[in-house]
């Protein structure tokens, strides 16, 4: 997952991963990218796809209805 994100980022795509390898600050930065609509591609590990994350996505969708962010659960 991390390798895929790094390749996309090198190509200029605003991508991130949300998994257990991130510390609290890194996870917060990713969540802020979701909230602001800055990310275009987000890879989410199963352990991070709980209710809090689903609420975050739902709130972000209401705010940024024109967002083209894609979310992949892996």
Give a brief description:
The protein has 74 residues and is α/β, with parallel strands linked by helices. It has one domain (2-73).
List key phrases describing it.
single chain; 74 residues; alpha/beta; three-stranded parallel beta sheet; 3 helices
Q: Please, could you describe this protein's structure?
A:
By secondary structure, the chain is of the alpha/beta class. It has one domain. It is built from three helices and three strands, in the order αβαβαβ. The protein has a three-stranded parallel sheet, sandwiched between helices. Helix 2 packs parallel to helix 3. The chain is globular and about 30 Å long. The protein starts with a helix and ends with a strand. The mean pLDDT is 78.
Helix content: 40-55%
Overall pLDDT: 78
Query: How much of the sequence is in beta strands?
Result: 15-25%
Q: How would you spell out the order of helices and strands?
A: HEHEHE
Oligomer: single chain
Major sheet attributes: 3 strands, parallel
Distance between the termini: 8 Å
Instruction: Return the domain count.
Output: 1
Per-chain topology:
Layout: H1 2-10, E1 15-18, H2 24-36, E2 41-44, H3 51-63, E3 70-73
Parallel strand pairs: 1-2, 2-3
Helix pairs in contact: 2-3
